[in-house]
Design brief:
The chain has a 6-stranded antiparallel sheet with strand order 2-15-19-18-17-16, with no helix packed on it. Strands 3-10-13-12-11-14 form a 6-stranded antiparallel beta barrel. A 4-stranded antiparallel sheet has the order 7-6-4-9, with no helix packed on it. It is elongated. The protein is of the alpha+beta class and 351 residues long. The two termini are 77 Å apart. The protein contains 3 helices and 21 strands.
Length: 351
């Protein structure tokens, strides 16, 4: 029995030893990777590089009508007749709406009868004055009454003309807001008339381009939902720079001969200055707005660093950065919410 006991004890010792070594190995292998991964945050980023366009300055703006007027009533009264259809094209001077003027017409007719009678009386008084049969004072009083009656007639004619609303220019009619028989007040909205034969492209550029001769420059642009490239030419530059945005407003004229574009459309284009324009563009999500300005997270010696930057124009994807970073810097774009100053990061570059 003693030899068997010795063998059994030996087996137990070997088994315990193997298990101990195995456990030690597992513990060591699990601890080392955790020490290596501790404090390193995986993020995404890009390498800042120069963007260049031969077309000029990227600009965004809005299409405006050449002329747009809200037609309103000038007097109080009942709408007698409407002479236009919604969406129809009308010519300048065309009658669009008539307000009932029966009372004014009656007053005008009465004044015209009085005018005829007074004119005949004045002519007889003039003959008598030459014969010295009437006094000069009586003749002057009659002349004054005659002149005042003529002024009253002119005033009535002006009031009657205001009962008619006519097209101020060639254009397309919008929706109407009154009906025949409705009662309108002064300044009641009747309809809108729009001239779309020419559109104005209103946009803005940074103030650093103020030294360029912007008047007469060409703008190539596209509108949402249309891949066709259109051309307009700058005809007006705002003489004042907006102190809030530090931008210069410009307007370009586009001949809308086919009436394919409409006022209010968003337009994205390039203001052609000649030569090439260079800038550093970063994704909009990389820019962090703060109380004292804007910042970017960049990679410095394997660690995250927050740097202040200045930006200019932007679009839906990129922002133009003019100071704070240089070409070749690694800009962090993903995982920004977890970043802290000096934190070690592992960057995956995006193309």
């Amino acid at each position: 029995m003693k030899p068997l006991q010795k063998v059994f004890s030996l087996v137990l010792s070997v088994t315990f030893c193997v298990l101990s070594v195995g456990c030690a190995s597992k513990t060591d292998s699990g601890t080392v990777p955790r020490k290596k991964a501790a404090g390193v945050l995986p993020v995404t980023g890009i390498v800042a590089k120069t963007s260049m366009t031969a077309n000029g300055i990227p600009v965004n703006g809005t299409m405006l009508a050449n002329e747009e007027v809200e037609l309103v009533s000038e007097i109080v009264g009942k709408v007698k007749k409407i002479y236009f259809e919604e969406g129809a094209f009308v010519k300048k001077g065309q009658l669009l709406l008539k307000v009932d003027d029966a009372d004014l017409q009656a007053q005008l007719m009465r004044a015209q009868f009085e005018h005829k009678l007074l004119a005949e009386k004045l002519e007889r008084q003039r003959i008598l004055l030459k014969r010295e049969s009437v006094s000069r004072e009586a003749f002057d009083q009659l002349q004054t009454d005659y002149n005042m009656l003529e002024a009253d007639i002119e005033l009535l004619e002006v009031k009657i003309s205001r009962t008619e609303i006519r097209a101020p220019f060639d254009g397309e009619m919008g929706f109407r807001y009154v009906s025949e028989g409705s009662y309108v007040q002064a300044s009641s909205k009747i309809a809108t008339i729009v001239d779309n034969s020419v559109l104005k492209y209103e946009f803005y550029v940074p103030e650093r381009y103020a030294g360029n001769n912007l008047d007469g420059k060409e703008v190539m642009f596209k509108v949402t939902g249309n891949d066709e490239l259109y051309s307009a030419r700058v005809y007006a530059v705002d003489p004042l720079i907006d102190v809030k945005t530090r931008m210069i407003f410009l307007r370009a004229r586009f001949k809308n001969n086919r009436h394919e574009l409409m006022p209010g459309m968003f337009a994205k284009g390039n203001l052609v200055l000649g030569g090439k324009s260079e800038f550093i563009a970063v994704p909009t999500e990389a820019v962090v707005p703060e109380m004292d300005g804007k910042r970017l997270w960049v990679l410095r010696d394997g660690k995250a660093a927050s740097v202040p930057v200045e930006t200019e124009s932007r679009d839906e994807k990129n922002v133009e950065v003019i100071s704070g970073i240089a070409v070749g810097d690694t800009i962090l774009t993903g995982g920004l919410m977890q970043l802290r100053e000096g934190m070690a990061v592992s960057v995956t570059l995006k193309r």
